[in-house]
Amino acid sequence: MSPSSSFYSAVPSADTVARSFFQRVGERCFSSLRFAGGFGLLCYQVAREAFRPPYYWKLTIEQIFSIGTQSFLLVAVTALATGSVMALQFGYGLSKFGGKLYVPRLVALTILREMGPVFTSLLVAGRIGSGIASEVGSMKVTQQIDAIRALGTSPIKKIVIPRLYASLIALPLLTLFADYIGLFGALVVSLKELGINSEYFIQKSIETLRMYDLLTGMAKTFVFAFFISICACWKGLNTEGGTQGIGNSTTWVVVTSSIFIMISDFFLTKFFIITVFPKY
Amino acid sequence: MSEPSPKIALEIKNLHKSFGEKKVHTGVSFELYEGEILGLFGGSGTGKSVILRSIIGLEKPDAGEILFESRNIVRLSERKLIPVRTKIAYVFQNGALFDSLTVEENLSYPLREHTKLSDEEIHERVNQMLELIDMKGSNDLLPAELSGGMQKRAGLARATIIQPQIILFDEPTAGLDPVNTKRLLDNIQKLKTKGITGIFVTHDIPSAFEIADRIAILYNGTIYVIETVEKMKLSKDPLVQSFISGSVGPDH
């Protein structure tokens, strides 16, 4: 065979490319359906077992502390930076129109409604979602999940439910901290960089903010926490392929949770605008 | 006068199992008698462990029955399997200890879950068990701090601490040096003197001959032969002889 013919034979035909494309699309569709089914089934199992004894409150409390201590510093730094940068950007942008005094109102609303919940959830998805997926995944590949079952106990009760409850409690609390820390950052920057005094900042923030601003933001985090924890547990419990499989599961959980947070945030905001926020 | 027939502790009837295209079991049937240890031989990938995992409910067979206490346990839900799993224990090949828990916490796990013993009683039972497996004083060690042999013995102790009726051993001596193999077999021998019933899956023929009362050979998806150790040793069957002598590789 001449070198040129071997070169041409290495180039895949249009038919092969099309088949490989459709095969990949098919695999993606199949794995999405598998996830949807598995996620639904795990939710059903959790709902069935959550109200039946035994209850492992100690495990839940351990998980709350674990999530809280693992994420607090990260959340605090991010919230501080976000609040500060937002105050700076709004101050710079609005000063062109003489609207610098609107900074407290804008920053407070943005942090409570969007930035606090979404940024905290994204960080928790990265930090805790990956942590749960890798921990549960390594338990799966080292047969510890099988051992839980073989010893007459339920992995749903021992593994999934404590992590779900802990996420549902810890994420809104972290968001609350993030909101306050973000506002504090904005207050400090407003004072030092924009010349807005603290009393004015606090007064305008209180005037603008309503309880529903805080509560709708926190309500979003319940949805995000539910998704992150169940998604991470499902992926961990279905991890295959040793250490590489654990790595893949971890990445997958972070990506999927982040996409879910971004997309669902839009629809949740839309939902709250229709149902909770006052009509103008 | 003929001997009274032994009581059946567990009965496997016509078990079928496939993984995708691969048919692993094509009609496995045998009985396990009370107080006996049944050695189960077979090449790698012939589905010996799958039989044990099906008995404990970690795998669902495609067809067939597993009768325990006159009840088919194959289609039981996870919740209904809990009482079965307190009576049948599974000793994992690598111990499968919970790596975030200490040896004491691992051993006390079944006691805390299934008994109402006080903390002191649990501690005492754990210490007795650790003494039995020659691991006295290792209560506070983590699994990562144990040798392979110790992990297997701790796994054995965790499975048996709740005093199950039947113990399923999944290659307990695999990967162990002769000293640790001897120790583990001594531990199983001690349990045997207490009258336990068990299935001993292994490639380690001498260990199985030492521990088991009967031997079964799994071949081509079914039980090829099941006989007492003495009869098995005297068997003229070429396949049995090749298994015993090791002249047929485990993959055949």
CATH architecture classification name of one domain in chain B: 3-Layer(aba) Sandwich
The chain-level structural class of chain B is: alpha/beta
Assign a percent range to the helix content of chain B: 25-40%
* Sequence of strands across the biggest β-sheet of chain B: 6-7-8-3-9-10
Shape of chain B: globular
Largest sheet of chain A: none
Q: What is the number of helices of chain A?
A: 9
Number of domains of chain A: 1
Radius of gyration of chain A, Cα only, in angstroms?
24 Å
Descriptive keywords:
A: 280 residues; mainly alpha; 0% strand; B: 252 residues; Rossmann fold; 6-stranded mixed β-sheet; 4-stranded antiparallel β-sheet; globular
In short:
The complex is a heterodimer of chains A (280) and B (252). By secondary structure, chain A is an all-alpha fold.
Ordered list of secondary-structure elements with their pairings:
The complex is a heterodimer of chains A (280) and B (252).
Chain A: H1 3-10, H2 14-49, H3 57-95, H4 103-141, H5 144-150, H6 155-194, H7 198-208, H8 211-237, H9 242-275
Chain B: E1 8-19, E2 22-33, E3 37-42, H1 48-56, E4 63-68, E5 71-72, H2 78-87, E6 88-91, H3 103-114, H4 119-132, H5 148-160, E7 166-170, H6 178-193, E8 197-201, H7 205-211, E9 214-219, E10 222-228, H8 229-234, H9 238-245
Parallel strand pairs in B: 3-8, 3-9, 6-7, 7-8
Antiparallel strand pairs in B: 1-2, 1-4, 4-5, 9-10
Helix pairs in contact in B: 3-4, 3-5, 5-6
Description:
- The complex is a heterodimer of chains A (280) and B (252).
- Chain A has helices at 3-10, 14-49, 57-95, 103-141, 144-150, 155-194, 198-208, 211-237, 242-275.
- By secondary structure, chain A is mainly α.
- Chain A has one domain (57-269).
- Chain A starts with a helix and ends in a 5-residue tail after the last helix.
- The mean pLDDT of chain A is 91.
- Chain B is an alpha/beta fold and 252 residues long.
- Chain B has a domain at 8-98 and 163-245: Rossmann fold (3-Layer(aba) Sandwich).
- Helices cover 38% and strands 26% of the residues of chain B.
- Chain B has helices at residues 48-56, 78-87, 103-114, 119-132, 148-160, 178-193, 205-211, 229-234, 238-245, and strands at 8-19, 22-33, 37-42, 63-68, 71-72, 88-91, 166-170, 197-201, 214-219, 222-228.
- In chain B, the strands form 2 sheets. Chain B has a 6-stranded mixed β-sheet with strand order 6-7-8-3-9-10, sandwiched between helices. Chain B has a 4-stranded antiparallel β-sheet with strand order 2-1-4-5, covered by helices on one side.
- The longest helix of chain B has 16 residues, at 178-193.
- Chain B is globular.
